Amino acid sequence: MLFAGCAAGRAKLTSRVEILLAASDEGRLRSLLDRLQLVEHVGGRIVAAAGEERFPRLALAAWGSTVAARTRGEVQAVVQFAALERLARAGIRAAPIKGPDLALRVYGDLGLRPCADVDIVVDPERLDDAVAVLRTLGYEGPPAGSPWLTDLHRGLAHPLAAMPALEVHWRTEWYSANASSGGLARTALQRAVPDGRGRRLRFRPADELALLLLVYARDGMPGLRLPADIAAWWDRYGRELQLGALQDIVDADPRLAVPLATAAATCGGLVGLPSQRLLDLGPARTSRGRLARSLASPFLDERRKHSAAPLVDGLLGGRTALATFVRRRLLLSTGRVNAMYERPRSPGGRARVRILQAQHPIRQLVYFVGHVGSRPPRPPDVEWGWD
Questions:
Q1: Is the pLDDT of residue 386 over 60?
Q2: 3-state secondary structure 110-170
Q3: Looking at the DSSP assignment, which residues form a beta bridge with residue 140?
């Protein structure tokens, strides 16, 4: 947590870092970093601070993973650049989110933030047009038409295995009052400005930070990877934000108060984001916010992470988003049931899929009750010494 945190906080806690490094077991540390997907970024920082002779196996793993991620990231960066250029030429507003663009800007190295795919936000009204444009790059995906109410993006794949998947987002969360028409992502895209190197658009700093925090909330606030990205983002762009920079976003859409404040407060405790300077954290202290934070551990295993995420997401959405939450998480289509339970699409399996479709809401409710009743121990927040 210390090595994933903001630079100012790490500098204040140097003596504590030295004590923890001296007491750390390399095998357990390496295993934890593997599970959290932080070998490259945090592992590299640990090796730099302790020396390769102290953690030789971690040093080799961090170097190898960084080189491999850098190679993949170069391909992803080219695809992202080409996609944005094609969309700009077609007159479609689009901006990158996360992915290689974030890695280059906040880490300065594609190898320090491995990415599975390339994410782009587009104008919801031009979603079908954007998908058609990206197909000219050889990508294949779902047919044109109105997106499902439960979908955040259109997923596009390339027939060449070396090419990364593309996720074309028309929104990034379900919490906004106007989520069905794009939510904060659409508003942020309308406010985006050229990046100074051409026609590509860049989100305003306050909008980008809010989007990253809402993605973290939407996913159930698992792990340390996105908080580490947010900490690195803060080191790069924090000085550009004025006091209360995120409060303006909440004031414009009060439904974002609980998810945004809860995600910001969680990142404050885990990685030292000075969230109390950005917005009123009062909504994070409501019953919904406190319960969501208690369920969101940075060290959840994969099974628990995926089953806890829907509950955290539902808590942060609140009663106003209850109907959408039920459709999104409980009343699934047969196609989604097939994908979730990895059932083959065959005539003989239709009855089984229907049974799973009926059982799914009960299974999810059992998961929810189990998580509320047996929450995992959560590590204490670091005393980051906020001003």
A1: no
A2: HHHCCCCEEEEEECHHHHHHHHHHHHCCCCECCCCCCCCCCCCEEEEECCCCCCCEEEEEC
A3: 157
Give me the mean pLDDT over the 229-256 stretch: 95
Residue 57 maps to a domain = yes
Buried b / exposed e over 152-167, threshold 16 CB at 10 Å, is bbbebebeeeebbbbb
The pTM assigned to this predicted structure is: 0.89
3-class DSSP state for residue 375? coil
Q: Does an H or E element contain 386, and which?
A: none
Mean pLDDT of 49-68: 95
Domain count, the chain: 1
Contact in structure between 208 and 234 (CB atoms under 8 Å):
no
DSSP assignment letter at 163 = S
CA–CA dist 373, 14 (Å, integer) = 38
Greatest extent of the chain over all pairs of C-alpha atoms, in Å: 64
Instruction: Give yes or no for a contact between 26 and 58, defined as CB atoms under 8 angstroms apart.
Output: yes
Give domain status of residue 379, yes or no.
no
344 or 245: which carries more pLDDT confidence?
245
Read off the DSSP letter of residue 379.
P
Write out the H or E segment, with its range, that includes residue 322.
Answer: helix 322-325
**Domain of 56, in residue numbers:** 7-319
For residue 117, list its beta bridge partners: 165
> What is the token pair recorded at 161?
């295995």
* Residues 170, 192: Cα–Cα separation, whole Å: 15
How far is it, in rounded angstroms, from Cα 323 to Cα 231?
Answer: 34
Residue with tokens 């997923």: 155
Residue 60 lies in a domain: yes
Tracing tokens 């895209």 back to the chain, one arrives at 189
Residue 2 lies in a domain: no
